[in-house]
Amino acid sequence: MHGSDGKILILGGTAEAYTLAEQLASASFTIITSLAGRTQNPRLPAGQVRIGGFGGVEGLTAYLRQEPIGLIIDATHPFARQITAHAIAAADRTGIPLLRLERPLWQRQADDNWIEVDTPEEAALAIPASARVFLAIGRQHLAAFLHRHDAGFVARMIESPETAPPFRMLHIIPGKPGEAEDEVRFFLENRVDCLVCRNSGGKGSCGKIIAARQLALPVIMINRGPPANITTATGTEEVMSYIHNHWLIK
Ligand code: NAP
After folding, report:
1. For the whole model, what pTM was predicted?
2. Does the pLDDT value for residue 76 go beyond 50?
3. Is the Cα torsion angle 179, 11, 19, 108 positive or negative in sign?
């Protein structure tokens, strides 16, 4: 199915996806948000929700046809590259329009001390000797830092991992990103002297970047890969404009 008569599928898991679901539901669109199912008790967005992987491009293609979906909005995290690639392939196969919602990058300020790298492996090599590091990255990337026996690591997780990562010097602290003043306190309490993070962008987790700036700490910033070659909105208002100006008039 093409055009404006199908449901809207939001590939979610981000703050922007929740806001968008709210806005689209308020505007009486039929929406389904898809969550990967990584957290045990996820906050549920407005509208319908489905949880769990689709089963690759084949599974997603079948799902799009079965519902049927008239528009896909990929609002997944900027570093969730696989689901974005699958959405592009499935949109191509089905001819269903695909819009990417991706928050803008954080921009380096004059008083930032950023060391920019492209991968977690490069980030591990860039850590100063014997540093005490706040590893603000996804848990699936922790292994890249295992060989830095000289450094101490702090990671913050909303849910503790079921099995402890094999890190001698990793301290896992339960919690969420906070405002800059909370993050300054976190850095000081945990004697952090270096931050490793990805350039995720957005306001929700920017507090740690501001805190590192205020404390003049080095930030090893893992860059995003090149943007996907698809129509992209940087905020929910742009998505609403796209829907009204391009999708609804099809
Ligand atoms: P990923 O590497 O791009 O995707 C891995 C697999 O997870 C996909 O092939 C797909 O499985 C499934 N998947 C991912 N997002 C999905 C969704 N919204 N609905 C249904 N299935 C999904 O993704 P990831 O980095 O593991 O991130 C997983 C989810 O967490 C994303 O939806 C993302 O928005 C959210 N998130 C990620 C990060 C991050 O740092 N990467 C941070 C915050 C939130 P199948 O192939 O079986 O369909």
Report:
1. 0.93
2. yes
3. positive
